[in-house]
Design goal:
Blueprint (H helix, E strand, L loop, with lengths): L7 E7 L13 E4 L2 E4 L5 H8 L4 E13 L3 E12 L1
Antiparallel strand pairs: 1-5, 2-3, 4-5
Length: 83
């Protein structure tokens, strides 16, 4: 990974609305008239990708955002630091 030692990495993604949802079941959605790839990710998936790369979790945040354009989104945010 091309992140300098001590550098920070911010990541914000949608997560499945419920634990039982399969994140791979509906990955193509229509957003504002355009068909797009839009896959939700679980916290466990993200941890599995980034921790082996030498990134330590500094902060985690979860919230639900609601907008007219996108409806209800379950958002997860991570700040990692390269160790």
């Amino acid at each position: 990974m091309a992140l300098v030692e001590g550098g920070y990495f911010y990541l914000s993604l949608n997560e499945p609305a419920s634990v039982s949802d399969d994140p791979d079941s509906e990955v193509f959605v229509n957003i504002m008239g355009q068909d797009m790839y839009s896959r939700a990710y679980t916290v466990e998936e993200i941890e599995g990708y980034f921790q082996p790369l030498g990134l330590s979790l500094v902060k985690f945040h979860r919230e639900i955002q609601v907008s007219e354009e996108f409806g209800e989104e379950h958002v997860i945010e991570f700040i990692y630091q390269k160790t």
